[in-house]
Records
---
Amino acid sequence: MEYSLLIIITPLLLFLLLGLSGMKMKPGMAGIIGTAGMGFSTLISYIVAYNYFFGIGQTDGAWATIIPFNVEWLHFTDNLHIDLGILLDPISVMMLLVITTVSLMVHIYSLGYMHGEKGFQRYYAFLSLFSFSMLGLVVATNIFQMYIFWELVGVSSYLLIGFYYTKPSAVSASKKAFIVTRFADLGFLVGILLLSFYTGTFDFAQLTSDGAGLVVASTAGISFMGLSAASWAMALIFMGGAGKSAMFPLHIWLPDAMEGPTPVSALIHAATMVVAGVYLVARLFPVYVFATPDVLTLIAYIGTFTALFAAVIAITQTDIKRVLAFSTISQIAYMMVSLGVSEYGGHDGLGYMASMFHLFTHAFFKALLFLGAGSVIHAVHSNEMDAMGSLRKYMPVTHITFLIACLAIAGIPPFSGFFSKDEILAACLHHDKLIFFTLLAVAGITAFYMFRLYFNIFWGAEKSYDGHHQPHESPLRMTVPLMILAVFSIFTGFIPFPEFITVDHIPFAAHIEWATVAIPSILVAAAGILIAMVFYMKGSELPSRISRALGGLYTATLRKFYMDEIWMFMTKNVVFNRICTPIAWFDRHVVDGAMNGLAWITQKMSVSIKGLQSGQVQLYVWIYVVGSLVIAALVLFL
Amino acid sequence: MIKMEYYLIISILMFFIGIYGFISRRNMLAMLISLELVLNAVEINFAVFNRYLFPERMEGLFFTLFGIAITAAETAVAIAIIINAYRSIGNVNVTKLNKLKD
């Protein structure tokens, strides 16, 4: 399976090629090369997946973990060394499929969407860089390799959000995304260092083997502020994941990241990069469940709150990409909750399986939603819902595919979202009733805001589009990826996921619990859709009357519960003024002052004795003679 | 036979007269002459110690000869430097030769 290395190397070579010589090519040429390379990478990853699941298969009833490629990169001690390699197990193979597929779709789609943009070649170079980093992240054999690629995806996300670098809002959004995730990664790094300090290894296989016995044993008895060292390490690692996956309160960067080109939002901020945090927790899941179940509970509650919080905000947003951004936050929180409520082994590991299942299906329908939104934006040249209406007449393909994605995310059978969401709810029901009912409510809210979006864009009153420019369907380069993703969104739900991906790699049988989970969730979703239909299909007075009645609550939701303002206050007034300013004063006056003082004393002393070096030879001789006489006297008389 | 101490007294007097001249004269030629006195005092010492302490050996006398040769060479070099210094600053006053400082 050494050829799996090609999946990762191809985008890297493409990045180097397009980055170094892209500007000398014709834009179309660069796009074709990038897309063809990504297509090759996708092909290889499908071959790898086929060979993994159907060639190598199971040993003793469990999916094997294989490492086809591994090199030692940094050597510290015999135990502690950083490797770079490829780890193939069910979740990494699944992630390879998701990333390459969505990335290829985005590559093709961008040929149409970004056509004629300045810096088209640069765009493709960055897309390749991102694909390389994300693929390297998911196949990481050790936590440090993951961290390296983790930062690389952060950088490529920064570059792509700031693609329109002449727009101040895009520049500040890219900085915000980078700084917030970087702040979270500080926790991640400290967590890695803590974990590797106590266990003496970075290796995933060693960390997660024997029910994380290594972690439990090596951190036993060490605690800080009432929590064990293992809990601190794993909670800090989760902080990195929470930053990347936009969990409350580190979610503030994701809505702003929508300043980037829409296909980028589809690839990075919906399907792949933002689920890196979920993937991280899933990768270290045995450690969480055996060594630090308390952190897992924390993850479940943070996820539940985030899911509800983001869904409520999504109701009021008017920028269609922001609605999708908040829905992404909410859906990723679903995956986090599902991991948080999961246990280990067999049917108890339902939550883990459901989380990966939802990650898989969500990647396709959310990418489809973003690409569809991109198609709409391409047609009407605005992100605002107010500028849209009755577009179904002009854009039939976009309309149908968008509807499919909306049904999938709302959880209507037989679309894929229903199956994965159903498993998540089932896992929650067996673990914690509060979480279950919250998530059920969130499912209803999700259906409502998605269909609010759908009806506002494709139904409702017709808007007066500029006379000379009627909205029209996007070119084939953009609609074909939509159709392919729509096919994925419909059928991926039928994949028997528990056969392939489970926490202990041993397949189990899961079934849909119609009475307790599936039917209530369908009813809630249908209710959400119906309300949205009444409110927005024909355009009614009800929504504005309700929003007026809610008054302050509505405004607070519209302003995203003032989280941006709270962070701004925290950083500017508390951190900068109260903490950083005194530290800067200390640095300038005490630390620098000590150094400057030393230099000043040295200078003063040398000025005072520099008269001795007068250039007068006779003075030197005089001093020399007196000095030697003094030394002679000392030798003689002491 | 004359006692060794008398020779040594002479050489010490020569040595410190030379030092005094070297420090107090401003004329470089006078300083050079003073330097010769210092060196000659040392050579007297060599000769005297050889003659009185190790009469059967010759090293001290050879050192004296070496010293005389080196003194002659050193004088030639010093005179050359002094002539060049005179050409550049117009006199042979050692206190004026302090330009390396700046």
Note: The CA atoms of residues 417 and 566 of chain A lie 34 Å apart.
---
Amino acid sequence: MGNWFKVIIIGGGATGTGILRDLALRGVDCLLLEKEDFATGTSGRFHGLLHSGARYAVKDPHSAEECIQENKILKQIAPGCVEDTGGLFVATGEDDLAYSEKWLEGCKNAGIEVQEISPQEALLEEPRLAKNIKKVYRVPDAAIDGFRLCAANVRSAEKKGAQARNYTEVIDIIKEGNKVKGVIAKDLVTGKEEEIYCDMIINAAGAWAGKIAAMAGVDVNIVPDKGVLVVFNHRFTKNVINRLRPPGDGDIFVPHGSVTIFGTTSRETTDPEDNGATKEDVLALLGEGRKLIPDLDEIRLIRAFAGVRPLYQPDGGGTGRNATRDFSLIDHEKEAGITGMVSVVGGKLTTFRLMANAVSDYVCTILKIPGESVTDQEPLVDDFCRLKPNSKKEFLCQCEQVTEDMLLEAVEGKKRISLSDVRRLTRLGMGPCQGTFCTFRAAGFYQKQKKLSVSQVNAMLEEHVQERWKGNHPVLWGGQAQEAEITRGVYLSLLNLDKLERCDGNV
Amino acid sequence: MSDNRKEMLDFCLKCSICHTQCPMVAKNPSYPGPKHLGPEAERLRLTGKNPSRDEQNKYLSYCLNCKRCDEACPHGVKPSVYNVKNKTSINNAGQESLRDWILAHNDWWGRIAGKMPGVSNFFLKNPFIKTGMSLLGIAPQRSFPAYKSKKLKIARDTKDKKAVYFRGCYARSNEPDIAQSVIKLLEYAGYQVEIAPLGCCGTPVISNGLMTEAKKIAEKNIQTLCQYVEKGYKIVSSCPSCTLTLKEEYDEFFDIPGSKKVSQSVWDIFELLLHDNVEFPGSNKKFSRVIYHVPCHLKAQGIGTPAANLIRKYVVNSLKVMDKYCCGISGTFGFKKEKYDLSMKIGNDLFEEIKKEPYSLVLTDCGTCKLQIEQGTGLHVIHPVVILAETIEK
């Protein structure tokens, strides 16, 4: 039956796609629905850090333990998504050394391998660090690409027969009495609505989980917590650099691909879509960052963005940094007498696989599906949209080395072409020019290859230029302000973008 | 600034003006160009994971180091600096690296060959030697400069103004007439002249990526020249590449005490004559229709064209100044077998320009530009010091 699945998963972030993979590997017939593209929510808006757990060693020991286990597993099963940079915890001149004792104890209890190195040695390895550092410890932190991870989960699941539909929004939940029977899903490309039935819905909508729960008439109290991050033009440390102090704002630098991601902040918000950063956020972050990397202002910022942590508050627990990073599985039958639906909330990207594993175990028990999770053994299908050595094709995005081949691979089987979706898979437009030169090249390339109409291409151009601009404007000084003037010259003067023929469809 | 070279890559705005000025991009479309090979690739080199690294490195040896990209950048990025720095990382095949090493040491060969120029010149034209060179990867079509030795005449009198002349390899081993002309001009301008007891400035060694050796050369040169500077000497050179290296490259690539002091005392011979307002009243403009090729490394010094100014004022009736083209030889580049054709192709626009009209004289300051133009046009090329020095009455 085309419109019946054993399980429907709502939300295409790390948790949702992780559950899809877990169930698919068990042979469960399942479908994932995502209203945008995969990893457009919190899973694509974070530090890009694969935690060792050391950050949570004092306050959240259970999370720390989970992190280190998952850290080891993901390095094994997803080498294409993880770069094993290693990490350092650094106490600066103004940090309290009493904390480092508690921290060491916490790491030991969680099973996190910590090695002390002398400040001199650390400065040789990371000459950018402040000269007044007092204590330095090495931990097994790494960098992880959230976009690639979610796409890899989807690809791994699809290989086992599962389905995942992006740009498909759940607009309502079908209930019969106290039993959830399915969803009404709207294809946002065609506008078509469809009823899809299932035995079980897993609500993995992250910051949007409260909205989905409300459709079924149940309460899931999510307190969206906004974190702002900035992106520097290049890598200036080899390791992930953490400040050795109680978790606070602006204390982690992650060398991520060709850039450095630095953050973050923690501010309560009301709207899960509140993902813009402001200049004030950025300036406050830089102020903290200088304590670790004193000459931070000399390095060009190319972007700022924000993600929303979907912190779960069952009954008025802590908020912001005090809220637990543990995840919660809510069985709505137990909570509110509604059967056929569970919600999974909280947690963090590093532990997504463990969450998926736990949720899948729980759901399979209810549905009486035998078998167990093999997601910690099975490697992810994560080798796609990459630059092949000796590729002869010209780079359409020179900053990030994206070729025509990669652009074609990125839209294989897609129902619509969006440069932002392509960007998440290939890094097109993520370099210093922020899409100034690759946006029109890629649009022209797709127009030719896929025979797109002029108004479709115009819409594609506009969407990508606007999306890049959104992240640009909070950091508009120095190099990036000058770059933005070039962008303006190219798109508004030369290409007259604001007066082009519009596409009447969506986008 | 802690290490401003690293930040220089942040200044690149991707405008691609450097591409429009790169002679290699113009004639070799597969060359990634200064922007990509420079700041863009440098940013990716920091990532540790860059699958196209080897391919990029292969192209580094195609950078002419003409510095036209550095001059073009509106934002202070110097792509050529990245190329030079990263050339050390190229893993050439054994034969190529032997060939590059041989070419980079033209100073040594010049010293040896200069002792018996007749024999050396005979051998350089010998077909067996040519075949041997070709096997080593040296372009057999390339005419080598003849070696010539000459005893230089230097006045022994003491004067207040003092200059130390950095001859460079070409004026020492191949065309000592240039050196004699420079000495004559400096003495005429009132200087007590001394020849620096030094060999190569290091340019060919640097452009072949032999940076460790280049640093040793730089240290020796700076140490010696520093002593002259402290005694009040001005350092003068007639070779644009030597001048540029002494003025800028040592400072750019190496951290050697005294390099600033030296670089601030270096003068191009014409730059000094103009600065001192030296006049040549006995001259007459005996040449008309003369063309002057401005070498890339003279252009890169940012001192304009002092040779052209003086030549135009005292020696030549109508002078055409060509600063648009790179001649394509780029020191040792044009001597390499696999690069010879490309080298000639790059120079072709300049050759056509020179052949277009029946010029009575072709001038240029640089020894290898001269070789290239002679090879590409069949015309004799003269260093401007030679014709200016001729105007001085004995």
Note: Chain A touches chain B at residues 83, 127-128, 233-236, 238, 257-258, 295, 298-300, 386-391, 395, 398-399, 401, 431-433, 436-437, 479, 482-483, 486 (CB under 8 Å).
